[in-house]
Amino acid sequence: MSPGELPIAVEYDLTERDVVQARLWFLRRNKALLAVGALVVLLVGGYIAWASICGAELWSLFPFFLLLAFWVVFLPLATILGSKRFYRTLLESERHTLMRFGPDHFEHEDGESSGRHSWRIVQSAGETPHAFYFLHRNSLLRVIPKRAFRATGDIDHFRTLLRSVLGDRAHQLALPEP
Q1: By residue range, what is the domain housing residue 157?
Q2: pTM
């Protein structure tokens, strides 16, 4: 390895699917939002049970069905449509990314910006069957598609690197397959 070269490098073109999956991952990991959603489902279920015991008219349940539809249908749909709109606003040069990862920091380059970042700015890392995700300061979500890795061994090596540099913040990473 030459000086300045980091152990793992990936180059990829971000797709609309990558952005949608990242936003849905972020939506699912938002514990406050999930707690409110669970509370809404419990309230709706409790009200329906109470209404059926008291013999209430079906039309009186309509506001609760609207509330449930908002959490179950509208929120994910708005996330998907917003992600697609966001992807369309990206310049072509912003979609092509080169990232390098090392034990002390990671670097990114795209057609519009570049930077060197300490691992300390990563609040959490997650993994799905298609990608890895980093959350920076609760506002910036980085997507690293698994298709960008040259071999399956590179994915395992990257996962090991993330666990070693992030510790507890890498709690949403999959265990390597035996």
Answers
A1: 92-170
A2: 0.73
